[in-house]
Every structure is written in structure tokens, then in C-alpha cells.
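Action item from last week, closing it out:
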Amino acid sequence: MSGYVATIGFFDGVHLGHRHIIADVLTIARQSGLSSMVITFSRHPRQVIGDAYIPELLNTTDEKTRLLEQAGIARCVVLDFDSEMAKMTAREFMEKVLRDKLGVEKLVIGYDNRFGHNRLEGFDDYVAYGRELGIDVIKSSEMSADGRHVSSSVIRRLINEGRVAEANSLLGYEYTIRGEVVSGTHIGRSIGFPTANINPAQVGKIIPSTGVYATLTTTADGNDHKSMTNIGFRPTFNGKTYTIETNIFDFSRSIYGEEIEIRFVERIRSELLFDSPQLLEQQLNADKEKACEILNSRKI
């Protein structure tokens, strides 16, 4: 196979809407006898063209490329979007990058996707440029899940609100954060709920809102464990530091310095202030029971 059927976009989340486009790419590639490609970027284009823009990411670049490969894409190209690329017109990009550099013969465009300098051109322009350049441009249809619009911005809002189960239904997988286990205050251990803590500053993507969540934790040895995760400030202990603390059920091995992966299944409750550590312990026992119930019935 010498040429490619490709699609282009930032693809943050690699959610069900993105997978709808990817499915079109895979189908067209199979029918055409070509290979499949996704072209994405290491930085959000708005970071280059808008100085004040700070993206709230659903995936790190490594996570995104792994998800794209898992979706069946043969080649994932991560471009370094810089000021020079930002100046390219859509036609220049199609000619210099898509055709000449990457060998794209067919380009699948999302129903609302635009590219090129200032995003001035649209699908009809891409089709016209494609005819000149020998690239067949095809529009992918819009996809919705149960009548809901699927977009990265909707998923970001849900995660920021702690509505992780709803976000997962649009992602097609459980939202995940990763981090190295660091030493904490050991307060949880004193009331029978030792925790593996990760530094929020090292996560590099959106962290769900404060509260307690039913989670699944993968340790460095690749094993999955039922768990519950608290995100917040530990108000019962006058906490002022923002923390991510995971209690891994029926687990005693020391994992300081190891990286863990936390998959968020469902929010159990908001963060609460208790009058005593004993009342908090009672609530944590109830939280664990609820988390086990949720995890035992999970669908993804």
C-alpha cells in the first residue's frame, strides 16, 4: 500500500464522535486498497494562534496516539503545530503536508472540521483544492449518542462537573488519570483507609471535580484493583492542599514511586466536612460498600 486514506484533527478524547470518523476512514481504506492514517497535533492549534488559550485536555499525546492505534489506525502522525504551519492556507497544507509529505490520496473530513490559516475555508473549498491536487475529499456524517451531541467540549464540561459516568458514555471508555505515587500525610491509614496519593500538578489533563469516586486502579505490575478515590482538600482535617487519594481495596503492597492508572467509573458523593474522624470512618465504610456495588455492575 503506497497511499493513505486520512483524517485530520486534534482528536482530544478520541471519543465516540471521533471513532465514527475513524470508522469511515477504515472502511474507505479497506475498499480502496489503501492504508489508514490519522493526522493530529502535539499542541492544540489555538495555543499557537491564541496566546491566552490554555487547553483543558482529555488525553496526553501518548494516551491519544495509543487510543488511535487501538481503534485500528495503521499510522498516526503527530505534527508539531507551529507559527509557520499556522500561516498555511488550506490549499498549501493539503499540497505540502498532506500530498507531498504524507502521501494522502483520500481525505475524510468531519462534518464541522475546518483547517488552514484562520480556518476561513470550508468543505466545498477542500473538495475544489483536492481536485487540483489529486486528493479525493469526503465528508463524514455527524454522530450522536442517544440523541446527544458528542464533542470534546461536552465531555470536558461533564468531567469538570464530576459527571464521569455520563462522560464515559460519550468517550466509549472510562476516563483515566495517571501519576506517580507520592508520600501523603498518612491520615487515611490512621482510620483504616490507607491511600495511594498522586500529585495533581503532574497529571497533565483535566481532573474531575472534588468528591469521592468509584474507581479502578491499575498498578505498575499491570494488575487491576477495585478502589475509591477522593479528590479535594480533606476538610475534616482542615486540609488546605488539593489532593488525589486512592484507597485500593484489599491491598497492602508498598507502591511509593510507582506509576498508577486510575479509571473513574462513577461519582459517589461530594466532599464533606465531618465533625470527627470516627464519623468520617463510618462514611468511608459506606462509600466502600457503594463503590463495590458500582464496580460489580459496571458496563464498560
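Closing note: The mean pLDDT is 89.
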